[in-house]
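Risk register update: the risk of archive-format incompatibility is retired. Evidence:
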Amino acid sequence: MTTPSRFRRAGVLFFATALSFSLAGCAAHSGTPAPGTTSRESTEVTSPQAADGRQISIVHALGTTKLDAPARTVVALDDSWADAVLMLHGTLVGYTETYTHGTELGAYLGDLPEEFGAGAAIVGTPREPDFDAIAALKPDLIVGAAETGGEHYQRLSEIAPTVLSEGAPTTWKSRYLVLGKALGAEGEASAMLGRYEEEARRIGGEINAGASDPTISVLRFQNGPTRIYAAGSFPGTVLTDAGLARPKSQRGNQDFIKVTAEQVADVDADRIFITTSPLGGERSMESFRATESWSDLEARTVPADDAAWTTSESLPGAYAILDELARAFHVDGPVVPEGLARYAGAVRNER
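Archived output:
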């Protein structure tokens, strides 16, 4: 039954839900980068540590990090990690200024920043963290992406235990399990991901039943080559979780495919979700609109939130994608964790 808000809420489940991930490990030495492992497809998660004095050991993209006890305070060096800390009810004491949200935490996070990140300080940018500011916060844990923070790993590790993950879109879920382990909340993380996957399957099933298994394209206009987001991208993983089909050219494991105005027919699908970068996106779109093929496709296009679909790589973004899919196909939107605001509308309103 369709609810008036179309974006129902439910409390976060605090019990373990069966959830299976293929998360490969790597050989690494404690506190030091492992040779040849600066790029990996996932972060290893082992079984939860009992509260018996044993260290919590996490193997990640640049080494093995050990914690003597579950972390309570965290500095996050990119948006997706900050989102994860707040979603798991960790205490966020510091985060970086980013292209997506500037110095503000995303409005889509609803009440979570006020409850679990009140007073959090800006600590530079993902590529240029402010080491003195981080040290002053005395965090129990520093988290971020190897691509942006890798060169600073040793210095960050001297301040606090540091976990830097591979940022491949297809492995975005692993950071929740890794962080859950570090916070002593691995069961909650597993349950949260399990609930999201249940919602994705439900929404995708209703869409497939009502629209006869439609195909979905995701097209981004930006300053530079226009992109079709394929199965290996972040939105591609959400569409896969929902069981929604892609055009044949978009089923590979690649993140995105560059496309020119002359190749506009390659984006053809039953629904084409269009995102537009705030930097040059509208200008790029004009060249596509000028083609003869565009008029045939335009009736099947759906405007979509750029930040949610292409840059969030987080549970709030995944829920936003599910919501926009549900709206486009007139099915019930997802049940989201308590405290999380509606992503797409909140992001649009804050710009």
